[in-house]
Every structure is written in structure tokens, then in C-alpha cells.
Design brief:
The protein is built from 13 helices and 14 strands. It is of the alpha/beta class. The protein folds into two domains: 210 residues, no CATH class; 151 residues, GMP Synthetase, Chain A, domain 3.
């Protein structure tokens, strides 16, 4: 009996000690002692320094503000010019009186000016930090990163971290950009068969930028900062930033981003507008999905890459006209042919832009060329990323306007 009592007493003391030690730990590293970063911004600072901006979530145990409080009151943004990221964070620790914590960071925003100089050093520094999440998205901002963060108050989400987690997923139903993580970006930098891309972002100034007359009939020709959206000023992510190794070299608009997703087998859903082959209808809006994986092959002729791709798309017609009978096979064939010709032209334009103008294989065609080289040394000696600028393309596009999507005529029974 005494043994049982002693055993129970010993267990009670042990549990009590664990509770006390845990309480002391959280008292030191509790929520009130940490500054949780939800977004990081990098710009070129003064005197060749780096400008580090941190968007910090304001969380307090005694915060009694109502759920209707504005987003601007839930985050603060601080910036500092510093020699390096680590130095800047140390200075922030001193300034804030709290320890900066990166475990909740959802996005890394880098300005175009800094991206043109190279971003590899900053990515390696952050990835080396055990707190930093490698699945954070990377955005290249056409404005200062600091400005991007200042205008990034979400319109539909109150929690900033949640907003940054959800926003990039719009690529799944628009195709106008791609959700790129820091880990994916850094992996592409070190890959000898491909080049990296990043999300292209900017602030919405409510001022539409000039685009060509051909492009004026479609929203997909815009890039970030160009869209004709009017409303509360905020940020928008549209298009892709294209890199050569770790340096920014160009950008893709919304339609070119759709082409990239098609060629890289990442397209979920997208909408395009094509000139109509049917009378009484100027343009047709089509909702696209991949019907099958895009299959590509690479052939080398005198060391020159010849790339052949087969694209299969399922389309749903969204533009309707009462005079068009979509149950007529001749009509649907005309629409399918017009869509195939349109998309084929845009894919060719996109592919030759990546090879001739940008010389950046962002679709990983190099993986299909590896079979021609017996050793890693032979592959490195060939230098695929240099030869990609010499590539020629052959693209076959097949579009199926599914009958289950077509409008059924119900007027005969009336």
C-alpha cells in the first residue's frame, strides 16, 4: 500500500515538474515574445546595401479588437537598409524588442531591380534558416518590394498569413500565373536542364497600360500592374518572371503563362478568347482543360535541338448566341479548327520567345535530351541551356469541344 502511494506521489511530482518547466519555456518563447513574419520584401537599398522589409503579424494575448477590424491594423511593416538578411534580422530583433520568427512566412517578394542583379545569395541564406519555410511563394514585383507589401492588404481575407497562402492558388482557375515556391525556384537554378520562373506581381494603379489592338479584346494579354480593374487599390499577380540562372531576363503575360502551363503539363483551368469563325459573333470565349498530358520529344540534328510537342485540350464554349446551333457538327468543327489555329499560333510565339528572345528553357525540354548523352560530362560539355536558343519547334494541337458541354436546343417542344 505504501509503495503504491509513493509511486503515485512520484508520478505527481514528475508531472508537476514537467508543467513548471513547460510554463517557463513558453514564458520565454511565448507569443508575446516573438514577432511573426508573414512576408519578406527585398529591394536595393542606399549605398549598395540591401533593403529588408518585414510584414509582421500583430498578435497579442490581450487584444480585444473585434473581428470586423481592418487588415491594416493586424500587420505592421518595417524596413531597414543592411549589408545582409541576417544582419537586418538581428537589427530588427533589437528594434522590436522581440525575436523575429520566420516560421509563418508565406511569401518572399523581390523587386525587379534586385532580381536583374541576381537572387541566388538571398535564397540560399533564407533556405539555410531552419525557421524559413521552403514552400513559401516567390514573387518578383514590378514595383518596390516594400511598396508591394504596403499595398498587399487583402480585400476578402482578414488574416494576412492566410491571404498569402490562398492568393497564389488563383493560377489553378485562371492560368494567368503559376504558384512557384522558393524551393522549386532554387532547384531550377541548380538544374542543368531548365531555368526558373517566379510569380509576377505589382500594385494595381487603376490605370490600364497600352497593349496592341489585337490584344485589346482579351484580358489574358495583360501582365501585373496593367489590368483595367477599378476599385480599392491593392496588388495583383499576373504573368511570370523569367530567369536565366538566378538573374531576371524578361516576363510573360497572362496568355503566355497559359502556354507555359500547357507545355509543362501544369494547366488546371484557363480561359482564352478567339476570333469567331461563326457569323453574328465576333469573339468566342473558351474554357480550357488539358485532355491529356502534353507529350514532347527532343531530337538533335547537328547539335541543334528540334522539339516536337503534341497538345490535347478539352474546351467548353462560354460565349453563346441564339443563332448558333452547337449541335451542328459543322459548326462545332469550325470552332474547334479556329481554336486549334489560334492556340497553335500562340504556342509557337511563346516557344520562340523563350528560345530566341529569352534563351531560357522554363518548360524543362532539356530532360528529353538527356538520353543522347552517356555521361554527365558529355551533357555538361554540350551545355543544353546555351543550345536552347537554337531550337526549332513543331507543335500539333487538338481541341475537343465536348458534346456534354454544348447547349441543348429546347425550343422545338414549345
Amino acid at each position: 500500500m505504501k509503495f503504491k502511494i509513493r509511486k503515485i506521489f512520484a508520478i505527481f511530482i514528475l508531472v508537476l515538474l514537467l508543467i513548471i518547466s513547460s510554463a517557463n519555456y513558453y514564458g520565454i518563447k511565448g507569443i508575446d515574445n516573438l514577432a511573426y513574419v508573414v512576408a519578406i520584401g527585398l529591394d536595393i537599398g542606399d549605398e549598395e546595401n540591401l533593403r529588408l522589409s518585414l510584414q509582421i503579424s500583430v498578435t497579442s494575448s490581450d487584444d480585444s479588437s473585434s473581428s470586423s477590424s481592418s487588415q491594416s491594423s493586424s500587420v505592421v511593416i518595417n524596413s531597414i537598409d543592411c549589408p545582409s538578411i541576417n544582419t537586418g534580422i538581428t537589427l530588427f530583433n533589437s528594434y522590436l524588442g522581440k525575436e523575429v520568427n520566420l516560421s509563418h512566412c508565406k511569401v518572399l517578394v523581390i523587386s525587379e531591380d534586385l532580381a536583374y542583379e541576381g537572387v541566388e545569395e538571398y535564397l540560399y541564406t533564407l533556405i539555410n534558416d531552419v525557421q524559413f519555410r521552403s514552400d513559401s511563394n516567390i514573387i518578383i514585383s514590378k514595383c518596390d518590394a516594400q511598396t508591394y507589401l504596403e499595398y498587399s492588404a487583402p480585400l476578402l481575407d482578414k488574416v494576412s498569413a492566410r491571404y498569402y497562402e490562398i492568393a497564389p492558388t488563383s493560377s489553378e482557375y485562371t492560368g494567368y500565373t503559376e504558384s512557384i515556391t522558393c524551393n522549386e525556384f532554387l532547384s531550377a537554378i541548380t538544374d542543368s536542364s531548365s531555368e526558373p520562373v517566379a510569380i509576377l506581381g505589382s500594385i494595381n494603379t487603376n490605370q490600364t497600360q497600352d497593349i496592341s489592338s489585337e490584344s485589346s479584346n482579351s484580358d489574358s494579354y495583360y501582365t501585373a500592374g496593367q489590368t483595367p480593374i477599378s476599385g480599392e487599390t491593392g496588388v495583383e499577380n499576373m504573368g511570370l518572371a523569367v530567369f536565366k540562372s538566378d538573374k531576371l531576363i524578361g516576363e510573360l503575360n497572362g496568355l503566355e503563362s497559359i502556354c507555359h502551363l500547357i507545355m509543362s503539363n501544369k494547366l488546371k483551368n484557363a480561359q482564352i478568347r478567339i476570333p469567331s469563325p461563326i457569323e453574328n459573333l465576333d469573339y468566342i470565349d473558351l474554357y480550357l482543360e488539358l485532355d491529356d498530358k502534353t507529350r514532347s520529344s527532343v531530337y538533335l540534328t547537328n547539335s541543334t535541338p528540334y522539339i516536337k510537342s503534341n497538345v490535347k485540350i478539352t474546351a467548353k464554349m462560354q460565349s453563346m448566341n441564339r443563332d448558333i446551333d452547337l449541335n451542328d457538327e459543322e459548326v462545332t468543327s469550325k470552332i474547334e479548327k479556329a481554336a486549334e489555329d489560334f492556340l497553335k499560333e500562340k504556342l509557337y510565339n511563346y516557344l520562340y520567345k523563350t528560345s530566341k528572345e529569352l534563351n531560357s528553357d522554363i518548360d524543362k525540354f532539356g530532360l528529353y535530351a538527356l538520353k543522347y548523352f552517356s555521361t554527365q560530362d558529355e551533357w555538361k560539355s554540350y551545355n543544353w541551356l546555351h543550345h536552347y536558343q537554337d531550337a526549332f519547334f513543331n507543335v500539333d494541337v487538338h481541341i475537343n469541344l465536348r458534346s456534354s458541354y454544348l447547349l441543348v436546343d429546347t425550343s422545338e417542344g414549345e
